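Inputs:
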Amino acid sequence: MSLRIEDLSFSWPGQPEPLLKCPELHVKSGEKVFLQGASGSGKTTLLGLLGGVLLPQRGQIFVLDTPLHKLSAPERDRFRADHIGFIFQMFNLLPYLSVMGNVLLPLRFSREKQKRLQREAEEEAQRLLSSLGLDSVSDRQVQDLSVGQQQRVAAARALIGAPELIIADEPTSALDADSREAFLELLFTEISRSRSTLIYVSHDPGIASVFDRNLSMHTFHSDLQKDPSS
Amino acid sequence: MKYSVIGLSLASMNNRRLCTFLCMFSIAMSVALLIGVQRIREGARESFNNTVSGTDLIVGARTGPVQLLLYSVFHMGNPPNNLSWHSYQTFSQHPEVAWTVPLSLGDSHRGFRVVGTDEQFFRYFRYGQEKQPEFCNGQRFISADDVVIGSDVAKKFSYQLGMKIILSHGISDVSFHDHDDTPFRVSGILCKTGTPVDRSLFVNLAGLDAIHHDMDHSHGASSGHHHHHHDKEDIQPSSVSAMLIGLRSRTTVFHVQREINHYTQEALTALMPAMTLSELWDIIGIAEVAMFIVSLFVVFAGILGMLSSLLTTLNERRRELAIIRSLGASPADLFLLLLSESLLLGLGGCLMGMLLVYVALWIFHPLAESWWGLSIPVHLPNMTDALILGGVLLLSTIAGCLPGLKAYRQSLSDGLTIRI
Ligand SMILES: Nc1ncnc2c1ncn2[C@@H]1O[C@H](COP(=O)(O)OP(=O)(O)OP(=O)(O)O)[C@@H](O)[C@H]1O
Ligand SMILES: [Mg+2]
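Outputs:
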């Protein structure tokens, strides 16, 4: 099991009603899940919970069978560094590093990801960039790339070190339809290769069909069961 | 992890090169100023304390040591009383005394003091590190109407060797007692010493007495005729303002000092120059402390400048910090990232500041020596410098905690939301 959520409830400080409520959710290893929800429905917040950056007020989150809610803050940071790759909506890259520097960045934070490399780090980065259609850009400054190219670099960064879970937060929302499809295709090829699980959130239902499973943010707005103690 | 964070802050600083450089430079300037002021203080104190060196005792009529030092060495104020020629003679023949130099003050030339002395002055007077006043031109006075002038005097009035100048009695610029009838001939011009010697004129004691004699005469015989022709060499001074004493052995200095202070025939004061000079420095040294405090504030300003620029960029870097956070950095790592940036800025500023100090010393050391006779010490960084640099590093570290803490709190409240 890659992901298991039970009895979850989360609200930001000052919010009267919980933003996210989810009695139960299971995601199998290697599944590619599409999670659709309107703007403001709490998609990014949910990903923060899965990444261990946020803690729920109530409930349990198991990622790769690890109970995130039981880990200390540094343990959750370590876990995120070792097992998860993130892709964000836009401006994913650090402007002061080269393309190569950006792709190699997660390895600086995780020995685990370094160990999973099957070849030299740079070779692997180059391979990922090539397979994502970015053969000749590795020494370029990231500002010089188009938005679509930048998102593919971000994908390469999420994929390096083959983390078990890839979390993508609307990575294609700034792309046109053609490059969106091309991006997804390349991403899927690489994810199948590393057999990672993918959680992909977007407000755009148009791409849902290519995923193994579709979820709606409504799943996270359902009422919880009564607290067993009461 | 920690290592990677420092690497990132280096890359990020390199990306904001101009800002980084300006920050470092403003710290460097303030560090250079502080250390420079420190060096000048050292140099000024050193050269002040060496206004007279090699002289073991200065003796004058009974008065406070600081006052005696002021009029005998700095030519400021007037001797309350003179020292009789008899006492002068007695102590110059004292068995422990190696040499004595008489000083007779109270006359001036266009605002500069005239010092009556004898050839012993040029043989024994020392300043700085046992340096002897040197002649840039000419030589010491030989006849009673020769005058040796200090470098500032020569420069101010463009006096040349052989020129005739008029000395006047009293110390005001406009004297009623100019004596056109006793002109003195410039026989020598001294080189710059950076001491009151530069602002003085030296005449033979006998010559000085001749002026006074002449004057007394003309006033006393206001209705009669004037005697213009004295045999100046014949005149014995009746008293002098002060005397410098060099001892055969330093170890007897306290003994001789006590003996002079308890001399029964005349009330006298003997002082040890080094001691009284540093006493005097403690009084006038307030200015240097003020200078030091001002430069401390400049350092604070430099660090505050760095702080404000770090805090400003922090908003632009919120996205960057969220990305780093998603890669597994903890809020503590982000704190460390910003802390290391200000530490690196402080470190760079310190190194650059030291470089500036040595470049400035290299340029200004010879100039300060020739302009003000001030020798600024050139040496490797010493304990004081280390303290200053350590203090600046500490301050920039403390300052760095503020943006660090802000980044820490931001990263906790933002989660993975990337804010623009
Ligand atoms: N750091 C935060 N502090 C407080 N409230 C927050 C924070 N981040 C998000 N929220 C609130 O939580 C709600 C959901 O925000 P979130 O960013 O998760 O939505 P989203 O589904 O990702 O939206 P979008 O599609 O626009 O990215 C919003 O109402 C927002 O105001
Ligand atoms: Mg979002």
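Remarks. The mean pLDDT of chain B is 83. The CA atoms of residues 50 and 129 of chain B lie 7 Å apart.
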